[in-house]
Amino acid sequence: MVSATPVANYTQSFATLQDLFANATNTHYVVNDISRVTLTAEIAQRIGAVAGKEWLLVTGVRWTERGGSPIAYVESYVPAEFEATIETFWHVRLPFYAMLEDASGQSIIEVLQDIRATEMPRRVSNAFGLAEASMSLQLLRRYVTRQGTLIASVNWHRADQFTYQMSLHRRVEG
After folding, report:
1. Which of 19, 80, 130, 162 has the most CB atoms within 10 Å of its CB?
2. How far is CA 152 from the centre of its chain?
3. Helix crossing, 17-26 with 96-104: angle to 10°?
4. Residue 144 pLDDT > 80, yes or no?
5. Which whole-number Å values give the CA distances from 7 to 47, 156, 163, 172, in the listed order?
6. Which residues pair with 162 in a beta bridge?
7. DSSP category for residue 91
8. CB 154 within 8 A of CB 49
């Protein structure tokens, strides 16, 4: 029997940066690698940066809890000037954007988010124990200050276990 309403194992719903902060502190994140990358034209365009510039790429997996189930494979792009701050990412539980805000003295004024369905490349599907090209919901979040993108994170979620909820309210005019 096939259900008309699939069961979601993980649901995200955010209205504020504080909601994002709570998600980061209520789950468990493990950094797998920190490396230098030169941005391709495609990546630069997606994250609001300049192609050919060197940035840092932090990859890791977000888990429901320590020893729990994987929620997301995460690739975070950070300007190379924050290398000293990024080295602390190995051992912290705070959201990366909050640490970069403190280190830069810049305030995040908006978070832009794109959600798309796409196939997982091997590096992502391996993190979930799935076959290459399994479907995912990919969330790209760009944390923007007046100076530009402070951090951009690509979060890959299993399409069969992820629901994104959004609630829109009508503003009642006086």
Report:
1. 162
2. 7
3. 120
4. yes
5. 32, 19, 9, 35
6. 10
7. G
8. no
- Both tokens of 66, joined, read 């320590």
CB count within 10 Å of CB 160 equals 14
Question: How far is 78 from 86, CA to CA, in rounded Å?
Answer: 8
CATH architecture of 10-163: 3-Layer(aba) Sandwich (3.40)
- Cα atoms in the 13 Å half-sphere on the side-chain side of 139: 20
Q: Phi and psi for 118 in degrees, rounded to 5?
A: -155, 160
Alpha helices (runs of H) in 80-157, residue ranges in sequence order: 83-86, 96-104, 122-128
Amino acid at 156: W
Every domain of the chain and the residues it spans: 10-163
pLDDT confidence band for 23 (50 / 70 / 90): low
Token digits for 122? 């091997």
Position 8 scores a pLDDT of 40
Q: What are the residues facing 158 on neighbouring strands?
A: 136
User: Is the pTM for the entire model greater than 0.70?
Assistant: yes
CA distance 53 to 59: 19
Residue for token pair 């029997």: 1
Structure tokens at 86: 């990024």
* Total residues found in the chain within this entry: 174
Cα–Cα distance for residue pair 70/41, rounded to 1 Å = 30
